[in-house]
Structure formats: structure tokens, C-alpha cells
Specification:
Among the domains are: 37-156, Topoisomerase II, domain 5 (Alpha-Beta Complex); 491-794, Neuraminidase. It contains 17 helices and 41 strands. Helices cover 30% and strands 25% of the residues. The chain has 797 residues and is α+β, with helices and mostly antiparallel strands.
């Protein structure tokens, strides 16, 4: 008869999910603190032992091992069992592999193992230390999934496997990531704790210095180690081992769990995308003798600079998060180093106690039998006569019990005794075995009555483990904590000239490349451009300066000056698209050096149609991939200039037809980053070609035909923003239209550049100071088909 129990769906879902969660936590994802194994690994090792696949026996097909595990202990998919078996055999996955694999068991490149019908395996010798004494009632057994046999809940685990080999897994609502350690150090720490249960944390850490990964590498600093050992959670910085060879970086060890093939692909991709610079070639020369990744450097490139980029942008350096979670008596717990060692010692204490009780019981039973045999041998004639005169076996047994004061077990042993035992040699052997058993029984009782003797056995076992399996540490531990080294720390700070062409090619050149020339000189070639290309922007900056790069569409991008490739005086540079996430149709219209994005500074933007917008500089403090909107532009408008101000500066805006307006910045209210702004000058039928802060003595005006002049700022009366302005320079066919204005002082220097790429550097004091209503003087002689396109002001060094 079917019984229906009404229940709320919410409660049923909660209960069912809780049951599922605990099943995953206990039965799949988390290791047991006692033997450091998850159920599938424990079942594999136990099944292999039952099959007799110990280290001294021959290999057998992995298909048979997987079949036995599935048949008796683990009714899940064969893939999960074989994958677990493969991992137990991989020397780059386990610090001390527990399975000896023969055949293709994968590689550190992420190659999968061959199918289980091709591979063979047996237990490693060290696995016997996990399974030793399992037949002596040292651990509890439970029914398997169908009740056909028994399986152990945990293994006796003389080997402190959880600390030695580590573990990782993701359960429901929790995870574990326990790093592997060196066996010698783990044993030393356990022995130190046994000798002194009150040992201090620092003394314990001095024994167990830190994780020891099978793939080696270098742990940077000890703070993360100590935090993990104290609290159960921490983070390590793990680096590859590197050597330098004549312009090459050689990688000999990579961090734990890093796929070598994917690492190489990642480095190659970053080199191709200019994220990592200075690398000319990348090769994998690894073989059966060891790992060797060769990174060929370009000539003249700093090894430290490239290595810092590799650490920052590839898995040659990783962060390894430690999360020491394991099952303690069936419940998940966060464990400190002391917890690990104490639980291991408790488990071994229990195992040795149970083993001693098992052996004591067995020895006492055997001694009891031997006592009966000795009585029979002492009265052999009477015993033989009694047996011969007995009607049946039962009659003989009862006669022996009654006449010689024996137990039924002793009587049965006498009846089963062979005639060969009657020889004097066999009689002596029985007596010797009996006396030996009495000594053994006495020793076992002494051990069981004295916890110190059990602790002595645990220590002796640990010393044996060190002797038989201990090896040298593979992972080095750096004494210095790793600092977050920025790439710019390796870049020498210097003044550089940065040029940008109309086609989008950018480069930086040391300022010293350009020698100062007097007014009227022919200049020198500053940029090698193609015939159809010409320079559109030039400015001077420090290599460490943060550059705000504004496009003509009003989008702002962030870029460090040192990230612009350094080029020769005649080189055309690199395409800006490789440095900034720009659309090909966009052009840079303003670049500002910024060291700090403070709230008391403002960013003033000026557009071609005379619009002015002021925004707090802090609104631009968060760089984003692809940039952000710096100003909302009307259709047909574009950004022509950007300035950092104090909030009380005076602004000068000039038009192409020779007019200019000077007004106070306080006339422009501060608005949000996405706002449009207000009118700064009435452009009429012209357009804005330049703007600047009136923070110096002169306004320098340059025309396209190489003419220019200086005029005192005070000659431009201060008016309200939005006006038509006053005459700035007379524009005639001789001097041409205005291309730029700069606010300069007597000690400034200027750099002019033409569309053909000719550059001239000259001091400001070589240019005449004349009135507003003039044409200016010639400052640069140009070829007939050449014209000035850009002007940069250089602050006197």
C-alpha cells in the first residue's frame, strides 16, 4: 500500500539539497585528515592491494584495476576512476606518487593518458606505508555499496599523506587546496610535536619550512606560509626557476599545476599583442632530462625588464591560495599546521593501540595453544594411550579436557598435532616459540599501558619513513617578501619627445636627440614618415608620467609614457592601435601628463566649435579598457585641446582666422564627465585652432607658412567667455592661417614640426615680441610644398 506524506516543496528542496551537499563533501570532494585520501583514491589503493599489485610484483593492465574498483567499491563512471588512478601516478601532480605507472600517463603539457587498456600499473613501495597493518583490525571497515564485501573507512596511514602530497577539491559551499610538503620536514615537525606537545608556533615552522611542490619553483617570502600554517588560509607567490644565458632567459621549472603548453601559448600571444615586449623568439627545448624553455631577447633589452613583464603577464608567476580544509571525524574543518600534526599523531596512536591489541589477542591465543601442546608432550605416553582407547574424536577431546585440565581449543590442537611434532627438535621449537610469545605478550602489555611507548613507536616509524623515502627539498623559499613591482620601476626616468603621425604611428625619442638651433635654421629630420603621412602631434613628457590620451571624438584613454616604444630619429614608430584600444577612424587630439588624480584639480576641454567643459580631475582616475567618454560632442564638433587647471586659471582660446579670447576659468562651472559644456568663444565662420592657460608672460602665435610672434598676455583684455574676442594676428597670404598658439615665457624652448617631418628646436627668446595687430616674423624656412602642422613647448631643463 502506497503512503503519501504531504510536505512543503521548499522544505523538501532544502532537505534534499543538504543531503546532496553532505554527500559531496564527505564522499567525494574533501580528503580525510587521517590518511589524506578521498574515497576514490582510497578504494583504488585498497583494491590494488587486494589484487596483490604490490611494488615487488609485476605490472598489470589498468583496465583490470579500474574494473575491480568499479565492481567492489566505487559504482561510478570508469573515467573518474581512471583519471584518479592516473593522477596518483603522475610525478608532477603528487610529490610522492602512490602508483607506479607504465606506459603513457600524460605529460606536464596537459596531454591525456593513454586508454586504460594500454597502460599498466602497480603500487609504489611508499603506498605500503599507507596500507601497512590494515589486516590487523587497525581501522574500521564498512559494507561496500552492495554488501558483498567490506572496505576500510580510512587507511592506517603510517605516511602523513595529507601534508606530504596535499589535496584539492571543490565541494558544495566549500573547497580545499592543501599544498604538498617535503617528507623529511613533515616527519621532523611531527617528531618535534611528540617530544614537546607545547612547542611554539615558530619552532614548529622552523621544522616545516613551507610547501614543497613536485615541480619545484620558488616561493617568494614566508608571510603567506606562516599565515596559512596559523589560520588554515593563506596565499603564496610561486615563481618559475630562471637562469640567464647570453641574451636568453631559460626556464627550468614552472609553478605547480601550470600547463607548460598553455604557458608557451600565453607568452606568445602576449608578445604578439605587444603586452610583453623585448622577446624575439620562444622555444621549448624540454626533453626527458628536464624542462628547458628558451626565451630569446632582443638586442639591448634588459633581462630584468622582460622578466618582470613575464612574471606580471604570464603564469611564470602564480598566486597559490592555501585553504586547509579536511574531514575530521566526518566533519569538514579548517586546519592549522598544529591541527594537521595533532590529528595525524592521534590517528597513529589509535592505529598502534588497535594493532597491539590485535597482536596481543593473537599471541595470547597462540600461547594458550602452545601451553596445551607442552602439556601433551610432557605426558605423551598417557595422551597417546587415551587417544587410542577413545571411541571417537569427541570422546578423545573430552578425555583430554578432563584428565589433563585442558581447554577444548587445546585439546583440539593436540588431536590435530602431527606425529612429527614428537621429535625432540620440534619439542624444542615449541618451547622456544612459547617463551618468545611470553616475552612478546609482556612487551605488548607494557606498550598498551604506557602512552610514551606508543609515542616512541610513532617516532620510530617517522624516522624509518625519512630513511627509506626522504629526499631533498625541490621548491626554494626566498627570504625576502615579494613586492608588487611595477614595470616602470625598471624604467629609467627621463624626458622624451613623443610624436604621433596622421596615420597613427607613435614613438618616443630621448629629448637629447634634438640639438638646439637658432631661429631661421633648416631643422633636421625628426620622423621618417611615408609620403602620404605627416606628423600631427608632438609633445614632451617623462617616461614615468601617466598620459591621458584624448581622441578627437572626446574619448579618453590611459597610457604610461614608457609603454610607447622607443624609436630612432628616423624611424616611423609603432601604430597607436597596438597601444590603445582605438578605432582606426579616431585620432589623438590631446595628451596630458598626470601624476595624481586629485579632487582640487580640474580638466578643461576645448572643442573646435568653441565649447569649453570643466570637470574634476578625479572623475578620470579609474582607467578602463577601451577608454571612457571625456566630453559629449555635438554633431560635427571635435576635441582640439585639454588642460589641467586649479579652478582659478585664465583661459585663452584662438581661432584659425586670427582672433582670440581671454577669460577667467571661474566663468565655467564644473560639470560631470559626460556633459557637453558651455560656449567659450564665438567662432563665427572660423574654427578653434588652439587654446591654453594664461599662466605665463606671452601668447605665441604660429601660422602655417612659418611665421610667428610673441605678444604680451596683458595686451588681451579680460572679457566674459562666449565673446568674439580681439585680433590676435593679421592673417595674409604671406603668413597663412593660424595653426597653433602657445602660452610661453622667456626661458622656454619650442619645437616646430612640418607635415614632411622636419623638426626644429629653438628658444622662445629668439622670437620677436610685437603687438597683436601684426603679421609676425619668419621663424622657420619651409620648402614651397611644406607647412607647419604642430608646435610643442619645452620647459627649460
Amino acid at each position: 500500500m502506497t503512503t503519501i506524506i504531504p510536505t512543503l516543496i521548499e522544505q523538501e528542496m532544502k532537505d534534499s539539497y543538504l543531503d546532496y551537499s553532505m554527500s559531496v563533501i564527505v564522499g567525494r570532494a574533501l580528503p580525510d585528515i587521517k590518511d589524506g585520501l578521498k574515497p576514490v583514491h582510497r578504494r583504488i589503493l585498497y583494491a590494488m592491494q587486494k589484487e596483490g599489485l604490490t611494488h615487488e610484483k609485476k605490472f598489470t593492465k589498468c583496465a583490470g584495476v579500474v574494473g575491480s574498483v568499479l565492481k567492489y567499491f566505487h559504482p561510478h563512471g570508469d573515467t573518474s576512476v581512471y583519471d584518479a588512478l592516473v593522477r596518483l601516478a603522475q610525478p608532477w601532480s603528487l610529490r610522492y606518487p602512490l602508483v607506479w605507472g607504465q606506459g603513457n600517463f600524460g605529460s606536464q603539457d596537459g596531454d591525456p593518458a593513454a586508454a586504460y587498456r594500454y597502460t599498466e600499473s602497480k603500487l609504489m613501495k611508499i603506498s605500503s606505508e599507507l596500507l601497512q597493518d590494515i589486516e590487523k583490525n587497525t581501522v574500521d571497515f564498512v559494507d561496500n555499496f552492495d554488501g558483498s564485501t567490506k572496505e576500510p573507512i580510512v587507511l592506517p596511514a603510517k605516511l602523513p599523506n595529507l601534508l606530504v602530497n596535499g589535496s584539492s577539491g571543490i565541494a558544495v559551499g566549500m573547497a580545499t587546496n592543501i599544498p604538498p610538503h617535503n617528507l623529511n620536514e613533515v616527519c621532523d615537525a611531527a617528531i618535534a610535536l611528540i617530544d614537546n606537545p607545547e612547542i611554539g608556533f615558530e619552532d614548529l615552522v622552523s621544522c616545516l619550512k613551507g610547501p614543497d611542490f613536485p615541480t619545484g619553483g620558488i616561493i617568494c617570502g614566508t608571510n603567506g606560509i606562516k599565515l596559512a600554517y596559523k589560520t588554515g588560509r593563506g596565499k603564496l607567490i610561486l615563481r618559475s626557476k630562471i637562469i640567464f644565458e647570453d641574451g636568453k632567459i631559460i626556464v627550468t621549472e614552472i609553478p605547480y599545476q601550470v600547463n607548460k603548453s598553455l604557458l608557451l601559448q600565453d607568452i606568445a600571444k602576449n608578445v604578439h599583442e605587444k603586452v610583453i615586449e623585448g622577446i624575439s623568439d620562444l622555444r621549448d627545448e624540454s626533453d626527458r632530462n628536464g624542462m628547458r624553455i628558451v626565451i630569446q631577447l632582443k638586442k639591448g633589452v634588459s633581462e630584468d625588464f622582460v622578466l618582470t613583464q613575464l612574471y606580471k603577464h604570464s603564469n611564470l608567476q602564480i598566486s597559490f591560495g592555501i585553504n586547509n580544509v579536511a574531514l575530521v571525524n566526518g566533519e569538514p574543518r579548517q586546519l592549522s599546521l598544529r591541527d594537521f600534526l595533532e590529528e595525524y599523531i592521534k590517528h597513529r596512536f589509535d592505529v598502534i593501540t588497535r594493532r597491539c591489541k590485535f597482536e596481543l589477542d593473537k599471541a595470547e591465543k597462540r600461547a594458550h595453544i602452545l601451553e596445551g601442546l607442552r602439556i601433551a608432550l610432557a605426558n605423551i605416553d598417557a595422551v597417546v594411550a587415551l587417544i587410542k582407547s577413545s571411541i571417537s574424536v569427541e570422546d578423545a577431546r573430552n578425555g583430554l579436557v578432563n584428565n589433563f585440565n585442558l581447554s577444548h581449543e587445546q585439546a583440539q590442537a593436540i588431536l590435530e598435532m602431527k606425529l612429527s611434532k614428537l621429535t625432540s627438535l620440534e619439542t624444542n621449537r615449541i618451547n622456544e616459540e612459547y617463551n618468545s610469545l611470553l616475552n612478546f605478550i609482556r612487551e605488548l602489555k607494557e606498550i598498551l599501558s604506557d602512552p610514551n611507548k606508543i609515542n616512541k613507536i610513532i617516532k620510530d616509524d617517522l624516522i624509518d619513513l625519512k630513511t627509506n623515502y626522504g629526499d631533498s627539498r625541490r621548491t626554494l623559499i626566498s627570504s625576502e617578501e615579494l613586492e608588487d613591482v611595477d614595470t616602470e620601476d625598471l624604467i629609467e626616468e627621463e624626458e622624451v619627445v613623443i610624436t604621433l603621425t596622421n596615420a597613427g604611428y607613435v614613438k618616443r625619442v630621448p629629448l637629447d636627440t634634438y640639438r638646439a638651433q637658432r631661429r631661421g635654421g633648416k631643422g633636421l629630420i625628426g620622423t621618417g614618415t611615408r609620403e602620404e603621412d605627416f606628423v600631427t602631434n608632438l609633445f614632451v613628457s617623462s617616461t614615468h608620467t601617466y598620459l591621458l590620451c584624448f581622441t578627437d571624438t572626446g574619448i579618453v584613454h590611459w597610457l604610461k609614457a614608457y609603454k610607447i616604444p622607443e624609436g630612432s630619429r628616423y624611424g616611423k614608430g609603432a601604430n597607436i592601435i597596438n597601444l590603445l584600444n582605438l578605432e582606426r577612424s579616431n585620432k589623438l587630439s590631446a595628451v596630458l601628463p598626470v601624476k595624481e588624480f586629485s579632487d582640487d584639480k580640474f580638466l578643461v576641454l576645448v572643442t573646435k566649435e568653441g565649447v569649453v567643459k570643466k570637470t574634476s580631475l578625479s572623475a578620470y582616475s579609474k582607467p578602463r579598457m577601451g577608454g571612457v567618454k571625456g566630453v559629449e560632442l555635438r554633431e560635427g564638433d571635435s576635441l582640439i585641446g585639454a588642460f589641467i587647471t586649479s579652478g582659478t586659471n585664465e583661459l585663452v582660446i584662438a581661432t584659425k582666422d586670427g582672433r582670440a579670447v581671454r577669460f577667467n576659468e571661474q566663468d565655467v562651472r564644473s560639470v560631470g564627465r559626460n556633459s557637453i559644456g558651455v560656449r567659450g568663444i564665438n567662432i563665427k565662420s572660423s574654427e578653434v585652432v588652439g587654446a591654453g592657460l594664461a599662466d605665463n608672460k606671452y601668447i605665441l602665435t604660429i601660422t602655417e607658412n612659418g611665421f610667428g610672434k610673441r605678444t604680451l598676455v596683458e595686451d588681451y583684455r579680460l572679457i566674459n567667455r562666449g565673446g568674439s574676442g580681439v585680433i590676435n594676428i593679421k592673417c595674409t597670404p604671406k603668413n597663412g592661417k593660424v595653426v597653433s598658439i602657445k602660452i610661453v615665457g622667456d626661458d622656454d624652448e619650442l619645437m616646430f614640426i612640418t607635415k614632411k617631418g622636419v623638426v626644429i628646436r629653438t628658444p622662445v627668446n629668439g622670437i620677436s615680441v610685437i603687438g597683436r595687430n601684426t603679421q609676425g616674423v619668419r621663424i622657420m624656412r619651409l620648402d614651397p610644398d611644406d607647412s607647419i602642422v604642430s608646435v610643442a613647448r619645452i620647459i627649460n631643463e
